[in-house]
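Q: How would the C-alpha cells look for this protein?
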Amino acid sequence: MNLPVIFKRAARLEFDEAVAWYEGERLGLGREFKLEVKLALKRALANPELFQRIRGRARKIRLRRFKKYAIYFAVKDNAFAVLSVFHASRNPAELVRRLK
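A: Here is the predicted structure in C-alpha cell form.
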C-alpha cells in the first residue's frame, strides 16, 4: 500500500519524547528507536489488515525490539494515520480517549 503516513500531533509528540529519552539513555539508541518505528510502519503499510483491530478503524502493531511500545494506526481518507506511539506502562485511559 502506498499511502502518505501522517502522525497526529499527540503521536508525533510521543514519538519525539521517546526518541529523546532513549538518546539520553545511550548515544545512538534514539536513532535505533526511530529505525524500529520506521520498520514497523513499513510492515503495517504493506498490509494493514493483518494487524489487530482495537477500536473502530484503529489497529495496533507492536515494536519488535522495544517491546513495551505499540503503534496505533488507522487507514482513512487515503492516508495512513499514526494515532499513538504508546508505551505499555502509561495509563490506558489516555489511549482509549484518543482512539474514540
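The beta strands are 5-7, 52-55, 58-62, 69-76, 79-87.

The domain at 5-98 is CATH 3.30.2310.20 (YaeB-like fold).

Upvote if useful.
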